[in-house]
Amino acid sequence: MAIDNQATKVLTGKVRLSYCHVFEPQSIDGGDAKYSTAILIPKSDKETLRKIKAAIDAAKELGKSKWGGKIPANCKTPLRDGDEERPDDEAYAGHYFLNASAKNKPGVAKPIGKDANGKTKFAEITDTTEVYSGCFARVSLNFYPFDAKGNRGVAAGLNNVVKVQDGDFLGGRSSVNDDFANEEFDADVDDESYLD
Fold first, then answer.
1. Structural domain boundaries in the chain
2. Is the N end or the C end of the chain the one with fewer CB atoms within 10 Å?
3. SS3 per-residue string spanning the chain
4. pTM (two decimals)
5. Which residue ranges are recorded for the region named Disordered (predicted)?
6. Model confidence at 187: pLDDT above 70
């Protein structure tokens, strides 16, 4: 059964990013440094979940050629239930989640309007503080089969991230506004000479 690459590709609805490393690759447990993020999908987003499950199934079909012609009984899949696996983390409540990674830097952008043909225009995000654990985005993923050191399954590749909304920081970090909104400062905010 032939599967085209479009069958394993998913454009998500609005999801939340956690453990977000899309500007600098990180090494986890001494492995190769990769760009990565956890993606929290609301359980109410049935369409994104349907597309992810279909792409995982398509990747399993592709994997048969790596796995001796059949899908292994213990085939690992990336989609996990936040309520079951992270019961003490309120950010994961009511969500499924998966981890996506890439060796190459993903595209990171934000929508900035429409062109003359009504297509969305994007601007690249280079400010590393603008996309963070806790913000909301739409993400382009590609699911693929793997066979590594006896582990067989499907993983999620990270293609592109489009930030769509700010959110509360995850991981205990607070924003400047939260910390200092009610504080008095001696500097005149209209006079930038104090920055010299």
1. 8-167
2. C
3. CCCCHHHHEEECCCEEEEEEEEEEEECCCCCCCEEEEEEEEECCCHHHHHHHHHHHHHHHHHHCCCCCCCCCCCCECCCEEHHHHCCCCHHHCCEEEEEEEECCCCEEEEEEEECCCCCEEEEECCCCCCCCCCCEEEEEEEEEEEEECCEEEEEEEEEEEEEEECCCCCCCCCCHHHHHCCCCCCCCCCCHHHHC
4. 0.83
5. 173-196
6. no
